[in-house]
Predict the structure.
Amino acid sequence: MKNKFIKSLAILSATVGLAACGAGATNDSSEGSVANIEDKTTVDTIKENDVIRIGVFGDKPPFSYVDANGDNQGFDVEISKKIAEDLLGDSSKIEWVITEAANRVEYLETGKVDLMMANFTVTPERAEVVDFANPYMKVSIGIVSPEGDVITDVSQLEGKQLIVNKGTTAEAYFRENYPDIELLVYEQNTETFQALLDGRAAALAHDNTLIFGWIKDNPGFVAGVEAIGNEDTIAPAVAKGNTALLEWVNAEIDTLNESGFIAEAYEKTLAPAFSSDIDPASVLINQ
């Protein structure tokens, strides 16, 4: 679902955090802190309701997308189903909430979701307004361009347009480090990559893991820049102050990494989508 009225992170950071299921929370204004959410409104309430609301993308294969049958699929979806199984005893006890990149913080702060699993890159700015759990994946920013006019260095983008998704680390990175590069910004991944296919800009910047999968299905495009900036991590996120759910998810992600479940999910969903020269160790935690 597309939200055209996206709030900025600056506004969101000042917003009182809501409980996962809408219960009230108190804010100690004398300390100016974000509202703390009572344990009863998190894990206990999820168990009482017998469902967990999880935010995922609907158009970001192979990570999370809705297939032709209307079913949620992908790497993030596999992990989400395991979380529901271990928390509620049934992997189907999920209310899927489709989000765009720029809505992820808002959906947590307004209590629209209990858990955000929409391929959420951890950044210091986001960590000020949401609580990230332990990571399950590594990622960097990559740049994809037509093979007939490959961008192999950021300097080649001078005087050209670069496509990015609104609310992504790619957008933030280029606005901060290369303010002179003109950005062509879209909200949905489908719009973003279609713009590249239509030749509306010289290149597209996005998570390199997404790019690796996309170029395999789209001959004629190459990742001329496979990684730029810092290596980041992808992690689940909960509303700020949601301690009970955060601690549960931390323990769960540790277990899934150590047991090999994350690696199995990779082999099922990501490995078939990536080219054979992609090393799983460049993507997975603890590999």
Summary: The radius of gyration is 19 Å.
